Amino acid sequence: MANDKIYQDEPIIYRPGRFVQKDRRPAGAAAPCGQPENTLQTPEKIIEMRRLAYTSEAIGKSREWLFLQQARFMAEYEDDDAQPVHFDRYYPTYADMTNAELRAYFTWRTSVRKGDFPDVCLSFLYVYLYELIAGVGCEDAEDGFRKFCAVKEHYQFLSVFPKIRLNLETWMRDYVLFYGLDPALLRGSQEERYEEAVVILMHDAEQPDETLFGALQTLSSYKTERSVILKKHRDAYCKAACMTFRMMAENYRLHGNVSYCEEIFGRMTEVQFSVFRNAVFYHERRPDDRHIAVNEIHHYHVRHGVWFCKRYFGRLHQNIHIGALLRAVDFAMRTRTGLKPLTPPKMTKLLSDTVQKALDAVEAEQRELERPVINIDLSRLSDIRAAADVTREKLLVEEEERLKPEPVAPQPEPVQDVPEPTSDLPLAPEEYRFLQALLYGGDWRQAAKDAGKLPSVLTEAVNEKLFDRFGDTVIDDACDVPELIEDYTDELKGMIQP
Asked: Which of 323, 367, 383, 426 could be bridged to 221 by S-S, CB 3.0 to 4.6 A?
């Protein structure tokens, strides 16, 4: 039997019913909420926003694209519906909300834009952050970044939720990069603080001890804050730790294949990454090629629309190598100062020897500082010499006065057979008796005393008066004891009788 049916092409009519999600509701429609919504109380603006999901332009587009269109459509919308709702959804968008939840969200957003920050559920907060990422509700990029900072400042509870806190900090970084803001805005984060500490270590020779020691503490796995050595000998500990690090770095510069910082932290690595990861974000255009330097060891590049990051990856802080260095210095100082020692740290022989050399240098420097400083004012030398001359003159006068014999009453001379000096000897009687005592073993001290003169004075007088005859001194008093020169003894005895 012949088939009498005629087949021809017919246009396919697109109906909204085709575009349904797994829960059988249209894309962009409100989620079911247990009770039917009263559409009569739904603002027209929200209804029009939902219709954007049914336009021909929305066919085949992603949920990120739809969120961007709806967010721009609702950018200036405000609401004042204070009905409490609870909304909880992963990667939330407007399409996931009921009309009541939408009104609650826009009411909360209106308060935030006016400077009030009421309590909010995390899903609402995520939607607001997605809007900021897209530039919705921001005068410019700087205003958007300020709004990010306001969220971080006013909602302190975010610190309890590590995931959203990490997302917020990552998105703030990506926001600065994507919109070309000043990289200085990225400074102050914990990650950047660690990187700045690494930069300080890379330029150790240029850093003062306090700055270098602070960087070591920031990155160390050994926490020095509880150390007794730090409390009792902070300055010495700081100097020894810094000197140890500098000596180790110098050793690696001279003898190593890598720098000391590369030995500690590894090498910088460049990896590809995506901006606004974990966010509902639609990339409308390919970014231009650029280079952004956050600091010396943290760089971003865009090449052919692809983002790359070059930096030290992994955990920079709690570094075991720096921890071993600070612990080794602590252990050595405890040993030298007699404090209760720590458990000996694991360290290389190079580190152990370097710590000892550093401590020796610090102790030598301390001894040098404790040595008394003598300052000589050369401009006052002439005054000192003049004063010394005056003092010397006074002492000579006083000595002469002291040596003058006290006046004594005349006493009859005892009768004794003391020969008078011969006419050819130019000696005074007391000088004759003094020389006589020396020649024949008499008491020359008593002879000097009887004469009222010092032995040295009598010696000088005798030598002076006999010099013309002998051409030399006849008495030697170099040792403060007068002794006759042996060569002239016989001749003197021929002149002076016993």
From this structure: 323
